[in-house]
Write a structure and sequence with these properties.
The complex is a heterodimer. Chain A contains 18 helices and 21 strands. Chain A is of the alpha+beta class. In chain A, helix 14 packs across helix 16. Chain B has one domain. In chain B, strands 2-1-8-7-6-5-4-3 form an 8-stranded mixed β-sheet. The chains are: A alpha+beta, B alpha/beta. At the A-B interface, helix 1, helix 2, helix 5, helix 6 and helix 9 of A face helix 3, helix 4 and helix 5 of B.
Chain lengths: 550, 164
């Protein structure tokens, strides 16, 4: 993984010192709350319902053991013993005191972590494929390019006060595990007809109150041009993006109003005027960054490896189930990609305790090469587990309550923090997710792969639009109701789900979801996921099932 | 208001005319962009005596075409969140080679000064309290930068390459 050099370290020390002084000026009354707000936001500090929330960047989701332990330390020392992984590969703490926030930042800096640009109208944390470097379908490892974007975008002097937030995701291949279509700019690593690797550039995707899928801005961008082209696109957005209405300020609205062809013309025109030379990525620079992500020293497959593993599958049904859902194919023979579910039944999705963080740190050293990845689906990936170690690894997880075998199933629910924490929310998300997960656990194997996503308001932090089943909290005369959508998808076939009908009360959610799943199970063809069935049969059977009896 | 230039407080040598003020025969004056667009055909003035105050809604291509006529361009920050003038300044410097003064006006925040300077702004109208709050220190909060901009400072990728 990427390790800081002296430049990165000194830069971050300067940022901590600057923030410490900003907090001092705020507490001394030199800065009003109005003046301080944009400054704290650019350092990840939000004022929530009960306390400050602190959002820490986990660039492209990668964490070292030292970083995991530091997050555990922050949870214990400054919060209530737990943290929350978000849908954008960040970590949030919900009970932070303002005067302690500079100390947290300094603690994080000691393990090469920060909270720069995790909020505010600037370029946010670049997200990526949690299977980067270990999936056999990838064109090339996306992490070096994410790191290059992270550095370029960090305290960018021109693009720190944009019309609205700006999110970039990079996917290793067309098999999309990074939800590229719902980002302001999405990059797919692709190979052109000449065999050269570059990027397909998408622009203008996003969820929120106007869900729009990104469109292709450029079919093939040579790697060398990555930063100059991003800079051209950002400049067009900074100049032309709307600033009169916060709900119309994302780049997706600009792309929608100009049309993708005009947008392309504007970006190309800006790109043509710029001097690219300073931003051109030379081979030397790229090679130096790629070297940080060199594959670890994999062991050769032992001759008894498979026997150990098969014996465990045969003798332990729980392990066999965990293998089936939580373990994915690794490109290196003898290794597997294992996903630790942070969705045990009856707990808030993505929450993790300090003790669990410490345990994951230890396990990543024992069963891997000291690295884990946080996913946008709020789970934790161990990228390099030896297949022969899987039984022992599973047992260690299960003993700590982390052995839930539900990755990709109905109880692997994404949810935002909702009204329990968030000032924007209209309704609670966590209790709905907890109850629904428990309710569906008995039938989730029969249902098969299923993505349920819950947001507590129209800002869509829980990505409900692209859930196979999406649940949106709405407020009706002070009461919490839930609007249900069906058929959405965040993968390469991305689609926004269709609204099933009028919103239901919280105690009707489980029943409505059951009925939607009944329709899917009854009508699906072999191998179809719910969005595919929905595309084929249309919305009527689903509407009929939920509302027909009334 | 206080004017900072060259990282020190200086007297403002420019007169800022209202649109109804008559144009004096000599002396350094700034006029609004709107007035310039109406009267440009009749204004014959050495570059060093003409400044333009531009709203942040005018596109850089349009300003750039006229930059040759003036020695000062005042860009506007109507509120802290509106960052269009960062791009205006950067483009004026990097694409149009504008070498006159670019002055930040409006709601200029201490914590944006270094960003502004990196985008090519070299004069700053700041509130009086800047003097008691040591705003000059804000220009040197960072001495490392991750990207090239309109200033001549080195950036980290270059520094790394130089060292290797």
């Amino acid at each position: 993984m990427y390790r800081y050099d002296e430049f990165d370290r000194r830069f971050l020390d300067e940022r901590v010192a600057q923030y410490r002084d900003q907090v001092r000026r705020r507490l001394a009354g030199q800065l009003s709350e109005e003046e301080f707000r944009p400054l704290r936001l650019r350092n990840g500090l939000y004022l929530q319902l009960h306390a400050y929330m602190y959002r820490i960047a986990i660039p492209y989701g990668t964490l070292s053991p030292a970083q995991l332990r530091m997050l555990g330390h922050v949870a214990r020392k400054y919060d209530r013993g737990y943290g929350h992984f978000t849908t954008r590969q960040n970590m949030q703490f919900n009970w932070i005191k303002l005067d302690e926030s500079p100390d947290i930042m300094a603690d994080l800096a000691s393990v090469e972590m920060h909270s720069i640009q995790t909020s505010g109208n600037c370029i946010r944390n670049t997200t990526s494929d949690p299977f980067a470097g270990v999936a056999d379908d990838e064109i090339e490892d996306p992490r070096p390019y994410c790191e290059i974007i992270r550095q370029w975008s960090t305290l960018h002097p021109e693009f720190s006060w944009l019309p609205r937030k700006f999110k970039i995701a990079v996917s290793a291949s067309k098999k999309d595990r990074a939800a590229v279509h719902v980002h302001d700019i999405g990059l797919y690593l692709v190979r052109n007809a000449e065999g050269e690797v570059g990027f397909q550039v998408l622009i203008g995707g996003g969820l929120g109150r106007t869900p729009i899928m990104a469109k292709v801005l450029r079919e093939f961008l040579p790697k060398k041009d990555l930063l100059s082209y991003l800079e051209a696109a950002l400049r067009v957005y900074n100049e032309y993006g709307r600033r009169d209405n916060i709900y119309k300020a994302r780049i997706k609205i600009l792309v929608q109003s100009l049309g993708i062809d005009k947008m392309r013309e504007a970006v190309d025109a800006e790109w043509a005027k710029m001097d690219h030379t300073p931003l051109d990525l030379d081979n030397e620079t790229v090679r130096a960054i790629i070297a940080h992500f060199a594959p670890p020293a994999y062991a050769a497959v032992g001759k008894d490896d498979d026997a150990v593993f098969q014996a465990a599958v045969a003798s332990d049904r729980k392990f066999a189930r965990w293998m089936k859902y939580n373990v994915a194919h690794h490109k290196q023979p003898g290794y597997a990609i294992a996903t630790v579910s942070l969705k045990p039944l009856g707990t808030p999705p993505g929450d993790i305790t300090a003790e669990q963080l410490d345990l994951l740190a230890e396990l990543s050293e024992t069963y891997g090469f000291g690295e884990v990845r946080v996913t946008h689906e709020q789970n934790v990936v161990f990228p390099d587990v030896r297949r022969s170690d899987l039984p022992a690894f599973y047992n260690a997880l299960a003993a700590a309550g982390l052995g839930t075998a539900n990755i990709g199933l109905a109880s692997d629910i994404i949810a935002c923090p909702g009204l329990d924490y968030c000032t924007l929310a209209n309704a609670r998300s966590i209790p709905v997710a907890e109850k629904l997960g428990e309710h569906l656990a008995d039938r989730e194997e029969e249902v098969g792969p299923m993505k349920i996503k819950i947001s507590g308001c129209i800002n869509a932090c829980g990505h409900h639009h692209v859930g196979h089943i999406g649940i949106l909290g709405v407020d009706k005369n002070g009461e919490e109701f839930y609007q249900i959508t069906v058929g959405g998808s965040a993968d390469e076939q991305s689609a926004v789900g269709g609204i099933v009908g009028r919103a239901v009360s919280s105690d009707q959610v489980n029943d409505a979801v059951d009925k939607l799943l009944d329709v899917y199970v009854r009508m699906r063809c072999e191998g179809e996921d719910l969005p595919a069935t929905y595309r084929r049969v249309g919305p009527e059977p689903f509407k009929e099932a939920v509302y027909g009896a009334h | 208001m206080v004017l900072i230039k060259g990282r020190q407080v200086v007297a403002d040598s420019w007169r800022h005319l209202d649109d109804s003020d008559p144009l004096p025969a000599t002396g350094a004056v700034t006029i609004s962009w709107e007035r310039w667009t109406v009267e440009r055909g009749t204004i014959a003035r050495p570059r060093a005596q003409l400044g333009l105050r531009i709203p942040n809604t005018v596109t850089t291509a349009v300003i750039g075409a006229d930059a040759d006529h003036c020695g000062l361009i005042a860009v506007a920050f109507p509120n802290f969140g509106d960052g269009r003038a960062f791009s205006q300044a950067r483009v004026l410097r990097s694409q149009y080679g504008f070498r006159g003064e670019i002055r930040a006006t409006g709601n200029v925040l201490r914590d944006q000064l270094q960003f502004m300077e990196r985008c090519g702004i070299d004069a700053f109208e700041v509130p009086e309290r800047a003097l008691t709050e040591d705003w000059l220190a804000a220009f040197s909060e960072f001495d490392l930068f991750y990207q090239p901009a309109a200033d001549s400072r080195p950036w980290i990728a270059r520094q790394r390459a130089g060292r290797n």
